[in-house]
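Hi V.,

Quick status before I head out on leave. The structure for the redesign project is tokenized and pasted below; the design run finished overnight.
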């Protein structure tokens, strides 16, 4: 078993992609998976309010190939609920409107750049009586 140093340095970032890819020299990738810094565990948002999602954009490459997307996830399932797309991952924050969803303590955000990064589980409080 022999790894080239360039493949080896990519392993932590794109393990799944590398193991599936052909074993040729990798093309240079701007792999950037910024960790979400807000919401945190214990955050409670109310439906239809404006909130700033933030993430650590330090170390962002000059160019990012993939379009950024922000998904809402509930109960461990990343439903096709897109909160935002096409924003600049280097900005480090994005103002969103919390969607009109049922109250739940098991929401997460997923920030997609080249790969996905999950926020801690947090609460959304619906603004309707349930
Ligand atoms: C989000 O951040 C921007 C820039 O700092 C600020 O102007 C705006 O008021 C913030 N929005 C909320 C809902 O906190």
């Amino acid at each position: 078993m022999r790894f080239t140093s360039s493949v080896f340095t990519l392993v932590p970032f794109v393990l799944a992609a590398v193991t599936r890819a052909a074993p040729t020299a990798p093309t240079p990738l701007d792999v950037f998976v910024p960790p979400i810094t807000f919401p945190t565990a214990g955050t409670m948002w109310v439906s239809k309010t404006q909130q700033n999602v933030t993430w650590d954009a330090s170390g962002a490459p000059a160019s990012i190939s993939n379009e950024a997307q922000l998904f809402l996830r509930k109960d461990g399932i990343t439903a096709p609920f897109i909160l935002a797309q096409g924003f600049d991952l280097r900005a480090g924050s994005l103002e969103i409107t919390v969607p009109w969803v049922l109250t739940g303590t098991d929401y997460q955000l997923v920030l997609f750049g080249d790969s996905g990064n999950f926020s801690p589980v947090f609460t959304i409080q619906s603004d309707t009586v349930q």
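Above is the designed sequence. Residues 50-52, 93, 95 surround 2-acetamido-2-deoxy-beta-D-glucopyranose (CB under 6 Å).

G. will cover questions while I'm gone.

Best,
W.
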